[in-house]
Amino acid sequence: MAVFVLALSAACFLGLGFVLQQHAAQQAPRADLLHWRLLLDLLRMPQWLLGTGFMITGLILSALALNKGEVSLVEPLLATNLIFAMALARVLTRQTLGRSGWAGVLLLALGVTAFIVAGRPTGGGPPAGELRHWLVVGTVVGLTLLLISTARRLPLFEEATVLALAAGLLYGLQDALTRTTTQRLDHQGLEAVLRSWQPYAVVAAGVVGLLLVQSAFEAAPLRMSLPALTAAQPISGIFCAVGFLGDRLRVTPGALVWQAAGLAAIVVGVVVIGRHPALPGTVGDTLESAGEAPGDTGDDVAGGTTDSADDAPRTDPRVDPPADPPTDPD
Question: Directed axis angle between helix 46-68 and helix 156-188, to 10°?
């Protein structure tokens, strides 16, 4: 029971933190995308600091949950952070939940339940050898780098989704390495933890993941990034847990079918919720919050924000082509 309470509490704080961070990140200069100065700019925004405080609280609670339960159990519960994000977004946008919202919530809840009941995640299996450990970590890191490279060649909205996927992969790996670190701390002490590479990898994954997810929040509305982040993290975490932590899932044909159905329901549920109007970032929400009606402004709608210094629309070379150079009258 403690694992469920900790994991759901962590999901609550993470969801609230993501919404507040995205509201702040969309005000950052577009040139900061995927640059470390983005984090420096965000550090000056009180709303982002508040959201980061919520996120850190969620990470601490998730670490406590991972210390008490298997990654394969905790990760699906953390996926419910989208429900809490939607609740806050509903307050901000004053949108009712509606049929599609309730359908997404139901799919997500049923998916989590089906996966946990069918898989019956248990720990205690022999941890993988060093070669398999590094193979699993290398696979996740390699996929993350591939997604980042692909994202840079896409339009902003698609880039936000792909960057969020990359961040989700890193966060899932971070969760698995966090469990490894807490287990070593319990059994071998702090000195053994400091001599191992896992805690430093946890910090590195967290910092890079933070840059990726804030860049995704800056590039496009929340509905383009948070569902992808929420869907990728549990899949990556479960892959790592089974790959090198010794977590076990039931592998009977019936159990595998229900586990696959549960994961599919989780993915579909987060996508349905993420596309719901209650999540901020639609054109109507942006214009309404500015006190304008559609058609009354020349702002860059694709970018979602304008430069607060001179009200000139921000442009991106992948969205707005450069102006034609002046021609010589001769």
Answer: 50
pTM as predicted:
0.72
Of the candidates 116, 81, 76, the residue with the CA atom closest to the CA atom of residue 9: 81
Q: What's the CA gap between 306 and 97, in Å, rounded?
A: 29
- Give the tens place of pLDDT for each residue, 229-285: 888 888 888 888 888 887 777 878 888 888 888 888 888 877 777 676 666 654 344
Helix, strand, coil in percent for the chain, rounding step 5 = 70, 0, 30
DSSP state string for 80-122: THHHHHHHHHHHHHT---HHHHHHHHHHHHHHHHHHHHHH--B
Three-state SS for 330?
coil
* Residue 326 DSSP label: P
Nearest CA among 67, 85, 66, 68 for reference residue 76: 66
Enter the tokens of residue 125.
């299996």
State the angle between helix axes of 71-78 and 2-25 in degrees (0 to 180), rounded to the nearest 10: 50
